[in-house]
User: Fold this.
Amino acid sequence: MKSKTHACSGPVGRREALTAGVLGVGGLTLPDFFRMQARAEEAGRFVDRQTSVIFVWLPGGPPHMDMYDMKPEASSDYRGAFRPIPTNVPGLDVCELMPRHAAIADKYAVVRSISHTFADHGGGHKRMMTGRIPATPVNTVNDAPATGSIVAKCRESINNGLPNYISLNPGGRVNDVFAQGPAYLSQAYLPFNVEGDPSQPNFAIPNIELNAAIADRVDNRMKLLGSLDRLERKIDASKIMESIDRYQQRAVNMLMGDAAKKAFDLTRETDELRDRYGRHCWGQRALMARRLVEAGVSFVTVVMENPYQSSVPALQQGTYNWDSHAVNCHIWDDLKVRLPIYDQAVTALIEDVYQRGLDQKTLIVVTGEFGRTPRIENTIGSQTKVMQPGRDHWPQAMSLIMAGGGIRTGQIVGSTNSKGEHPADRPLTPNDLWATVYRHLGINPSDSFLDYGGRPMPILPFGDPISELIRV
Assistant:
């Protein structure tokens, strides 16, 4: 039995939501970020298509048997505590704690038969994020580029005032926890990370960092942690934009330009829509993701990890991420809090994408690194000190959903056996998922980039688009 510390792949430390500061990318300032991108080889892989992906990441591993692949006829030590409810698609049932999913099942597809062999969080993250067999089954720093980094590389010629790869992430540790790093593509293709809780009144997109010489010319005593509007007025009054090197100028323009301001500004949305997504971290991150792709960002990762924030009371028998071992949490009590928040945020995102006419342009993928054990385990909880139920890691079967992107929705792809243990038909791998994503983006997965040793590595070594999802 794994301990709580070992089992949980989430951030080990918590940082305050940033109200002001320097927006860095893996420790880089924005000028560094653009300077490194300019030095990277173009390689001629920009695809001029206005398509995008919102990738909702559920770290820890969501329980497929309690969400999208319920087995009410299985014995009590498998089927779980909740009952399935019918959706508006005949034959597609979901958990009773997700009634909003039931109402819009015609707008998404459930894929039940993806599996892999990496049961550790690190190996699972790397396997899912990269579409490659990781060099090691543990640790989360990926040795091949994450899909978002591939997209950023292929679309680096786009300059619409925003980065092409953005991660909305609670703690900012995208490379060493969630395997979102660029590996041999270079640090220029790390996601542009936005931390904190957008539902909070003190949430802000931090400012950029100018170099010391420029800062002196603006105002030796000026604090570079003020609001964007204040910094913009100061720069305009000082007439020094011409003297900033072109990478710093691009960085300044990005976060002071209308595109960035509008994309990140949730106050431009109606209270009704913000309420519909939910006035919690997950809901407001999902809304921000929709705004970002609408503004032209190619790939946005939305991390939905800890539901116990945004005034949601902490639950002693709950857990930080989706890692629902019995030692970590009482899985049924945790899901009673977690799933309604998830249900609201994800369905609002899907409906919003369709209602705004983005359903051909934007593909939504919602997944974690693996599923959970079909058989329920019982052990003493590390927090509660009492016997409680849970489920362990299970890469042999998992469920994910996809919406938008012009795909065929309102269907189930694949199935698992009667106990939810492994695919019963249409076995798929993470590579088939990413082949589908790359097809949507117009990226050829046979294209290659040089690895650390100078060897050409294809974007995907194998995998085919999921044919059931493709409209002819």
